Amino acid sequence: MTGKQAITPAHRYRNNDKAVGVGNAFWDSCEDNGLAGIVAELDNGVLRTAEGHEFVNFTCCSYLDLDSHPQVIEGAISALRRFGVLDHCIPRSRVQIPALLELEASLGELFSADVVCAISAGVASAGLLPLIASGHLGNGTRPLMLFDKNCHVSLAGAKPACADETEIATCDHHSIDFIEDMCKRHERVCYVVDGSDSLGGYAPVLELAGLQEKYGLLVYYDDSHSLSAYGNRGVGYIRSHSPVLDERTITVATLNKAFGTSGAAIMLDGYQKATLRVIERFAGALCYSQPMNTAAVGASLASADIHRTEELTALQGKLRANIQLFDSYLKTDHAGTEYPIRVIPFSDESVIHAGRRVFEAGFYVSPVFFPIVARGTAGLRVMLRAGQTSQQIRDLCAVLAKAGACQATELAEETPS
Amino acid sequence: MTGKQAITPAHRYRNNDKAVGVGNAFWDSCEDNGLAGIVAELDNGVLRTAEGHEFVNFTCCSYLDLDSHPQVIEGAISALRRFGVLDHCIPRSRVQIPALLELEASLGELFSADVVCAISAGVASAGLLPLIASGHLGNGTRPLMLFDKNCHVSLAGAKPACADETEIATCDHHSIDFIEDMCKRHERVCYVVDGSDSLGGYAPVLELAGLQEKYGLLVYYDDSHSLSAYGNRGVGYIRSHSPVLDERTITVATLNKAFGTSGAAIMLDGYQKATLRVIERFAGALCYSQPMNTAAVGASLASADIHRTEELTALQGKLRANIQLFDSYLKTDHAGTEYPIRVIPFSDESVIHAGRRVFEAGFYVSPVFFPIVARGTAGLRVMLRAGQTSQQIRDLCAVLAKAGACQATELAEETPS
C-alpha cells in the first residue's frame, strides 16, 4: 500500500467487527427462513403478508394494545387539526408551540414527576448520559459512570461520549456488591441500568435504593418495557417501587411500547428549573429542532387520559391473566412474574427452525441471539399482550411445546394439541 | 475527600464544561430578554404569546411553508386512519407494516436514490457514522474519519463512537488541501460535512468530487437545510451538483425543515442489498423498534406528491424572490446566494439587545453565539421562507437596520422606515 497508514481500532467500548461479524450471519439465516424482513398489513390485530400468510404477532411491545385504541388515533388526528403542523421547526429552547408543554404537564401529573419529552428513549439517553457524566445533572461532581453489562444498547451506546467527559466502567448484571465497592472508592457514582429488561426481569430497585441512601448513588433507569404495563396509572416498575424519587433517580421510558404512541418521557424529581433548562439547551438532540410531532403529542395526550381511567386497570388485568395463562403451559425462567416477556431457550442450531415452525402455525415470536443476547443464550422471545385471546395463547404454547419448549410440569399431560 | 478518586476528563472530542459554561449564560441572557423560552400559538403564519404579543417567525426552517400545507396535514390523517396505529412496535428488521417501505419507495423515486428513513437526521448520523468508521459501509477498509470543524453537532457528536472504531481527525472548514493530504496518507478517508450549513453556505461539492474521483474519498453530507428548498423536485444542493452519485457519496437530510414533515431520509446509491440490510440491522437506533410514525409517513407521502408538481417550483421561486428582496435591503456575507439563511453580525454585547428590539417590532430572529458559532462571530440569524410577505420582509429589514445592521449601499437612502 505504498506507505499508507493502516488503522488499528481502539475497540474500548464497542466493536462493529464483532457485532456485525457474528450477528449478521444469524440475521441472514433468519431472513432466509422467513423470520426477518417480514412485511405485513395489520388488520384487527392480525398481520397478513402479501402472499396471504396470516399470523399473530407475539413480539410486539404494545403490551396493552393501546397503539390501535381508537381514542389514541383520534387524539393524534385532533392535535394535527388543532396545531395545523406536524412541527414548527425551531429549537424549543427558542420558540415552541404549546403542544409538547401540554403533554409534559399531563404526563407530569399522571406520573407525579417533572417530565421532559424526547423523540425516543434512545435520543433521551444519548443526550442525558453525557450531561450526567460531566456533572451538569447533579452536584457538579463528575461521577464514575457504571454501565450494567446487560443494559440496552441505547444506553451502552453512550459509553464513548461519557468516557470523554468522565471515567466509565462496566459491571456484571445487577452486581450490587461491585456497585457498592465503587461507591466507596469514588466521590460519586452513576449506575446505568434497564429498569425493565428487554429479555424479562426488573432491576433490584430496593437494594439500589439502599446504596442511594448510603452513598448518594445516582441511578439512571430505562424503564421502557414496564411503563403503562405496570403500576398504578401505568407509572412503571421503577416509580412503583423506588423509595428514592428525588434527584438521585432518573427514569426514561419510551412512549412507543405499552403507552401505545411515539416518543419518550424522561421522569425527573427535585431538579431546579435551571437544570431543566440545561437539559433543554445541551442534552444532545433534545436541543435540536425536531421534537415529538403533534400527532405523537395528541395520541399521547389521549393515551394519558386512558391511563387515568379504570380502562387501564382492566387492560393491565387482562395482560396479567394472559401472562399467567402462558406460564400455566410453558416453563421459563420468568414464569410466575408479572413481566410480559418470556424467553424460551433453544440452541443456536435449533432456534431458527423452531421459530419457523411457530411462524408457519400462525404466530411470530422473535429469535434472539448474539449480539442481542450473550453467546450461548439464544431463544425465542415471546411478548404477551392484553389483547391476545386465550385460544391464541393456548395454540402458541402447543406449537412451542412441539418445537421443543419445556412444558410446565403439572400440565404436561393435558397440553392442547 | 478521604482517599476517594478524583476524575480528570479526557475531553478529546467534547467538553460539556466549555459548552455549558459559556453557552448557558448566553441562553439565560436570551431568556431574560424574552428571546428564548418563548411559547406561542401558531395561527395563519403568525405566532401569538399568551400575553398577546404577535410576531412573525424569521427563524423557522420550514422554508417552503409545507409544514402547514393542508395536503400534508390530510396526508398524516389519512395514514393514521389507514394503518390504525402510530407504530406497530417491533424492529423493522423483523416485522414491519408497509408504511415506511412505501415512503422509501416514493422518496427513492423522487430523489433518484436508495432511501432509508430515520426518525431524525441526528439519529441517522449517529447510526451510520460508526458503521462507516468500521468499514462496514464501504469496501471493508476502515477510513480515517475526517470531521469538518464547523459540521453540525449531530455529526460531531459521533466523534467518540467513531474514534473507537477507527482513527478520527478534525479539519478546518472546507480545507480541500488538508483533505487531499489525508487522502494521500491514508488508504481510505471519509470526510463528514454539512452539505448546507445552518449558518448559510454550501459545501465545495465539485472540488470534493475531484478528490472522490482521484482517491476514492467517501463524503458524508448532511444536506438538511437545502432539501426541498433547492434543486429540481427539491433534491437539495448536494444531489443537484455532485457528479459522484455512487457509493462514495452519502447524503442525509431531515424531513423536518423545508420538506415540512417529520423524520429524515438517508440517500444512497450503488450499495448492495446486503449493505442496506446491515444498515437496518446495525446502524444504531435505525435498528430499534421506533421508526418514523405513520402520521409522519403519511405527511411525507403527501409532501413528496407536492414535490412532483409545479407547486414546488412556484414555492421555490417565491423563496428565491424573498431572499433577493432581503438582500436588496441588507448587506450580509451570503447576499446574492440562493441560500435561505442570513446572519447579521453583532457583537456579543449588542446581539441580544438588537434581537429584543426586533422581537418587540413583531419579528423573531434568533441570536446565535458560542458554542453554536465560533467565538466572536455572534449575530442574528434570519431564515427566509416562501410564505413571508414582501411587507414583512421590508419591515424586518427596517428594524434590523435601525438596530445596527449594515444596509445594502445602493438602497441606503430609500430604506423604508
Can you describe this structure?
- Two copies of one chain form a homodimer.
- With 417 residues, chain A is α/β, with parallel strands linked by helices.
- Chain A folds into two domains: 16-63 and 340-347 and 355-383 and 399-414, no CATH class; 70-307, Type I PLP-dependent aspartate aminotransferase-like (Major domain) (Aspartate Aminotransferase, domain 2, 3-Layer(aba) Sandwich), CATH 3.40.640.
- Helix content of chain A is 39%, strand content 16%.
- Chain A has helices at residues 16-32, 70-83, 99-111, 121-133, 153-156, 159-165, 176-185, 205-215, 237-241, 273-282, 294-307, 310-329, 351-360, 390-402; strands spanning 38-43, 46-49, 54-57, 95-96, 114-118, 144-148, 168-171, 189-194, 218-222, 249-254, 264-268, 341-345, 363-364, 366-368, 379-383.
- A seven-stranded mixed beta sheet of chain A has the order 5-11-10-9-8-6-7, with helices on both faces. Chain A has a four-stranded mixed beta sheet with strand order 1-2-3-13. Chain A has a three-stranded antiparallel beta sheet with strand order 12-15-14, covered by helices on one side.
- In chain A, strand 9, helix 9 and strand 10 form a beta-alpha-beta unit.
- Chain A is globular, with a radius of gyration of 22 Å.
- In chain A, 58% of the residues are buried.
- The interface between A and B is large, with 105 and 105 residues.
- Strand 4 (95-96) of chain A pairs parallel with strand 1 of chain B, so a sheet runs across the interface.
